[in-house]
Write a structure and sequence with these properties.
Distance between the termini: 32 Å
Number of strands: 16
Shape: globular
Strand content: 5-15%
Number of helices: 16
Bound molecules: pyridoxal-5'-phosphate
Strand order of the largest sheet: 4-11-10-9-8-5-6-7
Length: 490
Amino acid sequence: VDLLIPLDRALSAPLRDQLYSGLRLAILDGRLTTGSRLPASRTLAVTLGISRFTVDDAYTRLIGDGYLFTRHGSGTFVAFAHQSNPESGRESQSDPDRDSNRGWSKWSDRVTAATRATTPSHFRYSFTQGVPALDPFPFALWRRCQAHAGQELTPDLYGYGSARGYQPLRQAIQTYLARSRMLRTSVDQIVITSGAQQALDVVFRLFVDPGDAIVIEEPSYPTARNLMTAAGARLIPIGVDGDGLKSDELTQVREPAKLIYVTPSHQFPTGGVLPLNRRRMLLEWARSTGTLIVEDDYDSEFRYGQRPIEALAALDESLPGPGSVIYLGTFSKVLFPAVRLGYVVLPPDLVDRFLAAKALTDRHPPTIEQATVAKFIQAGHFERHMARMRRIYASRQIAMLTALDRYFGGSAHRDAASTAAGLHMLVNFDVDYDEAEMMRRATLASILIEPASPCYLSPPARTGALLGYAVMNEADIDQGIKALAKSLLS
Ligand SMILES: Cc1ncc(COP(=O)(O)O)c(C=O)c1O
């Protein structure tokens, strides 16, 4: 097919991202139909006047996302076509030329380039990661708490509330953090957010101007990284090993950074737990360079066979000085993602500006939802649910490990640390093909896995995937891993 994808070197978004977005759009709006063959990367590179590497990169990402597939020796093809929804009217007809005439901001360009499509299909086996099991959730208790919360809210609470969030929920979180994360904090330092993602957004707005540097773990959580890219940040990667961030390498950072974003309780995605000496090194570096630490504590509630470790913010609280850690928590894993509630614990001098930004952008999350969570915690349902889910996930994790051993033999590798906590593990496979081929094989076998490369700033050396074990029961995990081994090793 003849393919013209508009690329603009004047834009700050890299050409490879523009090409990825342009091809994706061409598939979504039907200009590229199912089964059609794409030009060879060398040909397209010549047509568009860009490097072949740029085209290969865009193709690889689209293959990873399930839009394209390769057939050995015969080329790259469109894997699916978007069925345009007759009811969605104009929305489905976006075209890049019209897009470019709308006067989009540079921020919007960066967001579009950074955002990837969700995988468009249904799968027989789902090793999706990042979401909890919803079947065992006690919805009847939840609804009861919702009803109680509604009855107890006085009429004035149906008006605008405080940007800090609903006071009883902040109090419940304060008690919970002191008990389970050893984080002793004043209620005034706690602000309720619409998930951890909003806390990140507000923090980046407060501290990052385009061109400012943020230090990140390599690999790290792509959704946080996309937000940094959207903010125009320059990213400085520091490697991780089985113990998480290699804090001793921070001294090699030669330029001032505004923030460092870390996952010390359970490194995302590799799983390491940052030991005390590295925590101290990280805090010392942050304090001596004036860098704020963003601690994303997204799933450490699910810890298996190890005592909970205190939050990095708790260690920071015990030190003199104004505080250098912004702590983020979320209810997405311990309750369910749709609740869209999280919280941030701020050093005291950050609170006013955070609240000003929060109030200006969305005021506060729905009070009734916050009150429901407060009731759910106060009644003891929260901790009981967590304890129950910890048992369920521990058993599913064992099922996953057993099946990996059984069906992959020695050809699936994971870091020993990856089983300490959380709901997923990063697994590298001994295969002689790349990630795109891995995704093609898994998709053909109707198995949902997440490729590892989006977590990396530089392409990883090995072919790997994030395998979530939360949502399927033990029998399906066993059969799913069996099917995966068959598709990847044949
Ligand atoms: C590393 C990490 N941080 C944070 C979150 C939670 O984000 P949110 O609270 O916005 O749902 C997730 C969810 O997948 C995550 O994986």
